[in-house]
Amino acid sequence: MKKDRSQSFWGNALQRFRKDKKALISFYILLAIVLGCIFVPLVSPYSMEQTETSNEAIRDRAPSSAHILGTDDLGRDIFTRLFYAGRISLGLALIVVFIECVIGIILGSIAGFYGGIADTIIMRLSEIFMSFPFMIFAITATAILGTGVKTLIIVLTILSWPSIARIVRGQILTLREMEYMEACEALGISDLKRMFKHLLPNVLAYIIVYATLGMAGVILTETSMSFLGLGVSPPTPTWGNMMQEARNFRVLKEKWWYWIPPGVSIFISVMCFNLLGDGLRDAIDPKLKR
User: Fold this and answer.
1) Among candidates 275, 261, 272, which has minimal Cα distance to 84?
2) Cα–Cα distance between 263 and 256 in angstroms, integer?
3) Angle between helices 204-227 and 78-114 (to 10 degrees)
4) Which is the most buried residue in 21, 175, 249, 271, by most CB within 10 A?
5) In this predicted model, what pLDDT tens digit does every residue of 89-123 receive, in sequence order?
6) Burial 116-144, CB ≥16 within 10 A → b, else e
7) How far is residue 268's CA from residue 166's CA, in Å, rounded to a whole number?
8) Which residues contact 143 (CB under 8 A, 6 or more apart)?
9) Nearest 10 degrees: Cα torsion 135, 139, 145, 149
């Protein structure tokens, strides 16, 4: 007799994910970008802040063998700055998504599990934050706190947590009526244990998909805010404030190496996160399980 090779839910999900070529390729591309951002000092002989203002021959030059993506008007190597910018943009996206997921999971779990007054307060609070005009809130926060990574984290986290909180709440409202939850209550298992051990693991699939797609959203938002001067200020590079150079028509027309590399990096990263999120959604959806 053949041994039963039935797999767990996550084993089946991983198997389905491996069959999704687009999602798998997106994962490897993102992995390559992350590794490039981490190990760029080992690859590039130039420093992120190294300027050559006294050497006219190096400043504002098109791509060449010495500088494969050219230099800016201060003589800084754009290839090096591109990957250091990726550290900020991707790191910012990771931090924002992590914080908003923690806040949203905790508040969404409380709202869904207890219901009643707790649910009402948390949901009304989420509706208030979701109704804030984004740009007005961002401009006000920047005027009070100044530009920078911390301000971006605060603004994006405050305005983003309600989405994941509502997702978690909706799932827990359904799951708490299941028979196994009645059994847990009959056994006298504490509320915290029921929430975090028996309910949240069943919501984890939705959280993973949301987080993946949320990374793409944060990158685009950071790009928009930095392009408008509300994000991270130079000389600290991000993909968004590198794109700011395209606001000058002369640069846009004659110096493509200033803005096309960060633009392509944003496009590839966002596209890969979206494809990865779609692939994860298809892989972990129980309805697709054979």
Assistant:
1) 261
2) 10
3) 130
4) 175
5) 999 999 999 999 999 999 988 888 888 898 899 99
6) eeebeebbeebeeeeeeeeeeebeebbee
7) 29
8) none
9) 50
